[in-house]
Amino acid sequence: MIPFLRDNLRWLGAGLLLTFASAFGQTWFISLFAEFIKDRHGLTDGSWGSLYTVATLAAAALMFWKGSLADSVPLSRLAQLAALIFGAAAIGMAWAPSVLALGIVLFALRFCGQGMFSHIAMTAMGRWFEARRGQAVSITNLGHPAGEIVVPLLVVLLIGAVGWQATWLVVAAVLLLVVAPLLAILLSEGRDPVLHAARVERPGLQGRQWRRRDAAGHWLLPALLPVLLTPGFIATVIFFHQAHVAQVKGWTLAEMAPGYTAFGVTTILAAFGAGWAADRFGALRLLPLLVLPMGIGVTLIGPAEGVAGWYVALAVVGITQGMAGSLWGVLFPVLYGTAHLGAIRSLATTIMVISTAIGPGITGLLIDAGVDFPTQCLFLGAWCALMVVLCSVIAARIRPELPHR
């Protein structure tokens, strides 16, 4: 592992920086400012949630349209452009004079943060690494839980010291003055698999290089659609409704906070474990196991009486989150080849972004209808059980079509 890290430090560092900096466009980060934003613009919980959903869906649509740029534009240039837009959006969060402007800013934050930064990182790892792709993807994905563990505390302290608007200006400065220049340096040189040999695009299923339209017309991608939606949907609604869970269970948010540390730790461990296992046994073998931990974890929220049950639930849910980042990063190049990987991944990223947009709305309506979230968790657990069966069927059917590696 040490020689691998040493020899590939610049490329792995670029991927890690992209996923870490994506934190500034993630739901959990923006939610830290929700009360301030609602007060400034006179928004209710419902209008704020609706605006957020519309902005996220718009970001998903643009991701679908422009995600293929990762195949035609040098990643160094694309990453810098995304960082500049990201930084401008952070400035906009402090300045936005109207609800319309706020919606545009939210759209840019979601497109760059949850969308392009993560998309560029995973496309690069899938294209640049082959024999140790799983390890490269798992290392890159560490940026997500690292951000979840480190950033919230720093931001809360910063808000207390300089205020919420000035905090967004600090975020903008980090993106424009630190992240963008570092990405320019780290991504200035590409990498070819296997010791910088001449680049060879590896085929996917049936020995083909799949284009996005071909993948969308094949049975596999529609079959994977509910599996792609599930982790993002469930993780987002758990975070989004934590205050509601606290109210229903009689817990306090302070008591629940250690659960996120447990979530971050298991996410990191699972990412490394899944990356190693994908390289050793093949990513397809992990597919049936992907949503099993999440199903167990979300089911535990329903009957939990003590807050320790919350810690355990989030720790188990974190296993799927860690596995998902590594699994998809390795599996898509295997299934669809590397020639058009950016376009294929943009479709998958769009699906994942949509899942984070629709989750709070659907579960919120159910709460308004009298079905509290802990009760909903039991049904989400049953859904995960169905996904385990579906993944097993998909893996068995697709295995004969994979090229020999």
UniProtKB/TrEMBL annotation:
Signal peptide as annotated in the record: none
What domain of life?
Answer: Bacteria
- Alphabetized Pfam families for the sequence: MFS_1
UniProt keywords, alphabetically: Membrane, Transmembrane, Transmembrane helix
| Membrane-spanning residues | 12-34, 46-65, 142-162, 168-187, 219-240, 260-279, 286-304, 310-335, 347-367, 373-396
Question: Which GO molecular function annotation, any one, does this entry have?
Answer: transmembrane transporter activity
**Any idea where the Major facilitator superfamily (MFS) profile domain is?**
1-399
For this entry, the protein name equals: MFS transporter
